[in-house]
Amino acid sequence: MATEPTQQGQIMAWSETEFWQPELVWREGAAVFAIAAFHAVQYQSDAFRQSHMVFPAEVQASVSSRQAEYLAGRLLVRYLQQHCGLAVLPLLAGADRCPRWPPGQIGSLSHSDGLVFAALQPAGLAGQSVLGVDIECALSQQQQQLLGTEILSAPELSLGLAAGLTENAVLTLGFSAKESLYKALYPQCRRVMDFSAAELVVITEQHFALRLTQPWSERWRQGGLFRGRYFWRQHRLYTLVLSDDETDSADLMLART
């Protein structure tokens, strides 16, 4: 997959392996997850062509850091497609900038300061019918003050504090968990929802569960439950939402213990 560097006068050819590298890959159920690091300073304008990647016009018009982020995400998705034995097809975006996953595939993608987090699974399988991931740095004090009451209700905050988390950790978890849920459901419901549209009802050392407080679509109705997992790695919080209550009530009960 890498392009070996070659000398062209005084210009070194772009190297895919110097630009990005997968750091962690694991499977949970039908889904495969991966974290990769990328180095925006290694990005070159010819990188899309050399990587055989589609270079959309709207991305070409963006700043180089955005181009690097976009390319890193698509390289990781291609890596997961190969890892899963799925068709290697481009991941394009719709008018709403939401990724349009190729036929037969369900996935999710998140970026944060030189890191990309992605998940992929075959579509149409029983169980794990939704998939969402998110990366976040811990919320700043200013973000806490501005967004705290929007992200979590008082009972949700109390739930996290009772689980042994600090206030900052609970708020960051609430923000990221709800982002993961939104990324999981938006491709199907196409509705913009705020933080109050779901509430945390379970928080343990590594798991959480969210309940919809209002209907998101005909399928995703008020009261629907979704399980998720979270972990801290190198000062960033990673969250993932895997499935709905129709298929994972047993796992949700385990999360309560």
What does this structure look like?
The protein is an alpha+beta fold and 257 residues long. It has two domains: 7-122, Ribosomal Protein L22, Chain A (Alpha-Beta Complex); 132-256, Alpha-Beta Complex (Ribosomal Protein L22, Chain A), CATH 3.90.470.20. 33% of the residues lie in helices and 30% in strands. It has eight helices and 13 strands. The chain has helices spanning 16-19, 47-50, 57-60, 64-84, 141-151, 154-162, 167-189, 249-256; strands at residues 7-8, 11-12, 20-28, 31-38, 92-93, 99-100, 105-112, 115-122, 132-137, 198-203, 207-212, 225-233, 236-244. The strands form four sheets. Strands 9-13-12-11-10 form a five-stranded antiparallel beta sheet, with helices on both faces. A hairpin with a 2-residue loop joins strand 3 and strand 4. Helix 5 (141-151) crosses helix 7 (167-189) and helix 6 crosses helix 7. Residues 1-11 and 245-257 have low confidence and may be disordered.
